[in-house]
Amino acid sequence: DADVTQTPRNRITKTGKRIMLECSQTKGHDRMYWYRQDPGLGLRLIYYSFDVKDINKGEISDGYSVSRQAQAKFSLSLESAIPNQTALYFCATSDLGTGKHEQFFGPGTRLTVL
Amino acid sequence: QQQVKQSPQSLIVQKGGIPIINCAYENTAFDYFPWYQQFPGKGPALLIAIRPDVSEKKEGRFTISFNKSAKQFSLHIMDSQPGDSATYFCAASNSGGSNYKLTFGKGTLLTVNP
User: Fold this and answer.
1) Which candidate from A40, A44, A105 shows the least CB-CB separation from B9?
2) Residue A88 in contact with partner chain B when CB distance is under 8 A
3) Could you give the CA distance from residue B73 to residue A12 in angstroms, rounded to a whole number?
4) For residue A54, which of A92, A96, B2, B11 sits 20 to 30 Å off, Cα-Cα?
5) Could you read off the pLDDT of A81-100 as tens digits, one per residue?
6) Residue A39 neighbours by CB under 8 Å, 6+ apart
7) Closest Cβ opposite residue B95 in set A44, A92, A101
8) DSSP letter at B93?
9) DSSP B82
10) Sheet (strand A19-25) strand order
11) Which residues on A lie below 8 Å from B39 (Cβ)?
């Protein structure tokens, strides 16, 4: 679904490097989320934002930071990447103002930390 | 603490079979229970969802059964097809809460053999 885009799609980096993953959406949704997916662990919430001025930690926020630059943009940063941050990262959006709770996911970024 | 427990972790069925995926939750405040479907290389997408005021919901070949007293819900796929092969995630949320977010199960990898 091109409405939620993520860049880059794949990234290989080294331990200690700073990495930024970007998410953009054209759905006009107010809420945005960052998840991490690991085999056997499902989807775990890292950070979420209900509007530009609202940022909240999820269940696994340690080692990550986020920035909501605009309603349509939500970036995830790894200040000093470590190998156990190797995972598939998803951005998602939702619009609770419509009364619907569906989250729309981007295509994912596969991050490898060596 | 895992609030949504999903089983089995993986499931293999023959074409035409009826795979069943089960989820159990702990938080009695949860009132929205979606299932997401994820194909390889893609982000998860909403498949079907249910609220606790009904015990069953059908959409095409997909059915959610809900047991409020047991705090369990399950996904049934009728006449399964090879194209249904994917990872399925159950989730739950308290839709009335101001801090709305989804809690996902760990996922089930479904393989439907021809």
Assistant:
1) A40
2) no
3) 39
4) B2
5) 999 999 999 999 998 766 66
6) none
7) A101
8) B
9) G
10) A4-7, A19-25, A73-78, A65-70
11) none
Q: B40: cis peptide before it, omega within 30°?
A: no
A45, B101: Cβ pair inside 8 Å?
yes
Interface of B with A (CB under 8 A): 6, 9, 32, 34, 41-46, 49, 89, 93, 95, 99-102, 104-107
Whole-angstrom distance, CA of residue A40 vs CA of residue A43: 9
Statement: residue B100 has pLDDT above 80? no
Mind listing the pLDDT tens digit for each residue in B69-93? 999 999 999 999 999 999 999 999 8
8 Å CB contact between B112 and B87: no
Residues A44, B104: C-beta atoms closer than 8 Å: yes
| Pairwise CB contact (< 8 Å): A44 & B42 | no
State the Cα–Cα distance between residues A62 and A85, nearest whole angstrom. 11
Token code pair at residue A2: 């091109």
In whole angstroms, what is the distance from residue B30 CA to residue B53 CA? 12
Helices (H), B2-62: none
> Do B66 and B54 touch, CB atoms closer than 8 A?
yes
From the list A33, A43, A104, the residue facing B89 with the nearest CB is A43
Mutate to test the interface with B, among A29, A43, A109 (most CBs of B within 10 A): A43
Determine if the peptide bond prior to A39 is cis (ω within 30°). Answer: no
Tell me which residue has tokens 């880059």.
Answer: A8
